[in-house]
C-alpha cells in the first residue's frame, strides 16, 4: 500500500518534468518567430520594392538610383501604360477569360484522366500511365504543334489556341493520380457501387468533394500557367486587329519603348525619348501582371497547403 501511494505521488511529478523538458521555452519560441518573420519579409520585400520603384519619378530614379524611400513619387509610369494602348482593359478581360475557362477545362481533363488511372480495375491503366509519363519527358516539338494547331485544327487567331496547348499537363495528371490513390478509400467506392451508383456519380458526388485540396492545388498551377503565358500568343495569335493577351501586350509596349529610346537620334525624338519612364514602366508592368494573382492566392492558400501535405503523415 505504501509503495503504491509513493508511486502515485511521484508519478505526476515525473510527468510534469517530462512535459517541461519537451516544451519549447518562451525565449526559443520568440527566436523562431523572429526568424520566420524575417524570412517571410525577405520573400515579400522584393515585390514591395518593385511597387515603390513603379511609383517613383523617372528623373528622381535616374539621379538617386533605387531607394527604399525616394524623394518624389509619381504615377507617370501607370499613366503611360494605360494611355499608350487603349486595349489594356480588353487584354485584361481576355486574359481573365482565358485563365478561368482554361483552368476549368484543364481541371476537367486532368481529374477524369487521373481518376481513371487511379482505379486498379481499369483495363488500360498501364498504357495510359506510360503515355502520360512519356509525354512529360518527351514532347512533339514546336513545329509539329504549330502544324496541328494551324493546319489540322484551324485554331489560329482564336481563343482556343491560347487554351488547348496548356489544357492537359502530364505532371498534373500524375499528381492527381497519386492524390486519388492516397485520399480516396476503395471501401467508399465499393460501398457506393453496391448501392447502385455508377462511375460518373461516384466521381461527382464522392471523389471530387474529398479531393478539393488536390484540385485547388492543380487549379492554382494551371491558373498561373494561363495568366503568365505569352508564348502561345506569339505563335498562334498574330492578328493585328485582334486584342492580344495581357502578357503579350505588355511585352509589345516594352519593345516599342525600347525601340524609341534606342533610336531617338535617328528618329529625331530626343525630347520624347527623354520623357519616357523606362525603368518605372517596367516595374509598373510587373505590378500589373502580378497583382491579380497575388490577390487571388490567399483564397487558395488553405487548400494549397493541404494538397501539398496530404499523405505525408499516415496512421
Question: Main traits of this protein?
Answer:
mainly alpha; 315 residues; 76% helix; disordered C terminus; 0% strand; MetI-like fold; transmembrane helix; transmembrane; MetI-like_sf; transport; 2 domains
What top-tier CATH class of the largest domain fits best? Answer: Mainly Alpha
Q: What percentage of residues falls in helices of 4 or more residues?
A: over 70%
- Give the N-to-C terminal Cα separation: 40 Å
Indicate the low-confidence ranges by residue numbers: 4-10, 14-18, 311-315
Question: What is the H/E order?
Answer: HHHHHHHHHHHHHHHHH
Number of helices: 17
Structural class: mainly alpha
What about the largest sheet? none
Our estimate of the beta-strand percent is under 5%
The CATH topology name of the largest domain reads: MetI-like fold
Rg for CA atoms: 28 Å
Task: Tell me the domain tally.
Answer: 2
Just name the CATH architecture of the largest domain. Orthogonal Bundle
What's the count of strands? 0
Provide mean pLDDT, rounded. 79
Annotated CATH homologous superfamily of the largest domain? MetI-like
Shape, per Cα inertia axes: flat
Q: What would you note in describing this structure?
A:
The chain is mainly α. It has 2 domains: 2-76, no CATH class; 85-276, Orthogonal Bundle (MetI-like fold). Helix content is 76%, strand content 0%. The protein is built from 17 helices and no strands. Helix 5 runs antiparallel to helix 12 (212-227). The model is unreliable at 4-10, 14-18 and 311-315 (pLDDT under 50). Keywords: Cell membrane, Membrane, Transmembrane, Transmembrane helix, Transport. It is found in: Cell membrane.
Amino acid at each position: 500500500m505504501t509503495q503504491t501511494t509513493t508511486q502515485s505521488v511521484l508519478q505526476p511529478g515525473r510527468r510534469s518534468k517530462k512535459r517541461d523538458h519537451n516544451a519549447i521555452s518562451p525565449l526559443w519560441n520568440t527566436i523562431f518567430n523572429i526568424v520566420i518573420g524575417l524570412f517571410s519579409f525577405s520573400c515579400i520585400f522584393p515585390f514591395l520594392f518593385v511597387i515603390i520603384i513603379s511609383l517613383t519619378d523617372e528623373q528622381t530614379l535616374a539621379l538617386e538610383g533605387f531607394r527604399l524611400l525616394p524623394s518624389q513619387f509619381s504615377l507617370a509610369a501607370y499613366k503611360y501604360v494605360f494611355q499608350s494602348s487603349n486595349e489594356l482593359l480588353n487584354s485584361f478581360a481576355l486574359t481573365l477569360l482565358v485563365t478561368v475557362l482554361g483552368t476549368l477545362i484543364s481541371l476537367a481533363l486532368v481529374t477524369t484522366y487521373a481518376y481513371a488511372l487511379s482505379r486498379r480495375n481499369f483495363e488500360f491503366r498501364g498504357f495510359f500511365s506510360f503515355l502520360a509519363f512519356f509525354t512529360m519527358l518527351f514532347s512533339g516539338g514546336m513545329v509539329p504543334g504549330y502544324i496541328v494547331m494551324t493546319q489540322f485544327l484551324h485554331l489560329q487567331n482564336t481563343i482556343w489556341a491560347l487554351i488547348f496547348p496548356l489544357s492537359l499537363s502530364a505532371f498534373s495528371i500524375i499528381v492527381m493520380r497519386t492524390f486519388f490513390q492516397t485520399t480516396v478509400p476503395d471501401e467508399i467506392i465499393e460501398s457506393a457501387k453496391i448501392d447502385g451508383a455508377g462511375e460518373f456519380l461516384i466521381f461527382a458526388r464522392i471523389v471530387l468533394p474529398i479531393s478539393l485540396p488536390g484540385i485547388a492545388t492543380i487549379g492554382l498551377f494551371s491558373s498561373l500557367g494561363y495568366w503568365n503565358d505569352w508564348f502561345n500568343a506569339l505563335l498562334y495569335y498574330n492578328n493585328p486587329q485582334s486584342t492580344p493577351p495581357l502578357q503579350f501586350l505588355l511585352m509589345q509596349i516594352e519593345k516599342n519603348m525600347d525601340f524609341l529610346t534606342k533610336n531617338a537620334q535617328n528618329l529625331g525624338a530626343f525630347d520624347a525619348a527623354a520623357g519616357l519612364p523606362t525603368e518605372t514602366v517596367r516595374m509598373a508592368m510587373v505590378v500589373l501582371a502580378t497583382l491579380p494573382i497575388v490577390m487571388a492566392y490567399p483564397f487558395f492558400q488553405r487548400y494549397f497547403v493541404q494538397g501539398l501535405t496530404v499523405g505525408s503523415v499516415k496512421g
